[in-house]
Amino acid sequence: MSTHAKRERLLLADLLETAGPEAPTLCEGWTTRDLAAHVVVRERRPDAAGGMLVKQLASRLERVMAEFTAKPYEELIQLIRTGPPRFSPFSLKQVDELSNIVEFYVHTEDVRRAQPDWTPRELDPVFQDALWSRLERSARLMGRGVPTGLVLRRPDGQTAVAHRGTPVVTVTGEPSELVLFAYGRQGAAKVELDGDENAIAKLRETKQLGI
């Protein structure tokens, strides 16, 4: 596993272990147990994980999620720590970095920021750049359902257009915060929104930016 993905994976496992199985998360309706089961199913049950994207597979995903949620919590955490089995595409370093750096960062913050006493993490510039790279590549896809024009902006001025249109809302923040905003964690993301007030209000009501 690559450095960033592995670090976030192990941090997520540690946080889940410390929080216990019934702690809240930023994922609406999910406890830490639900979140842990989701992570394991995504990596270990590709036959069911497709239900996250394909409606026809949703019922299968629901059944498999229930099966894994019922497992001992400690077992779920250990499965997260050890990573995917060898036959999984996620076991390949390149796939792990491409697919898991954002996944594990977001879910780590789902656990951290659901706690009342959380504070922002200091992330190194290399990790911030890696998150920005992923966000740039996916911005158009993620922004396809946004009701306004949307530009994501780093403090240094780099921008990614998530949706073309008017009026335009510009969301400014560190890549790590922009990722959280784009993945529906608007209330917890440390960002600034500039633009038409009505457009900003509509954007805030959008739980996820097209995903």
TrEMBL record:
GO terms for molecular function: metal ion binding. It comes from Streptomyces pilosus. This is TIGR03085 family protein. It comes from the Bacteria. The lineage of its organism: Bacteria, Bacillati, Actinomycetota, Actinomycetes, Kitasatosporales. It holds the Pfam family MDMPI_N. Residues 12-45 form the Mycothiol-dependent maleylpyruvate isomerase metal-binding domain.
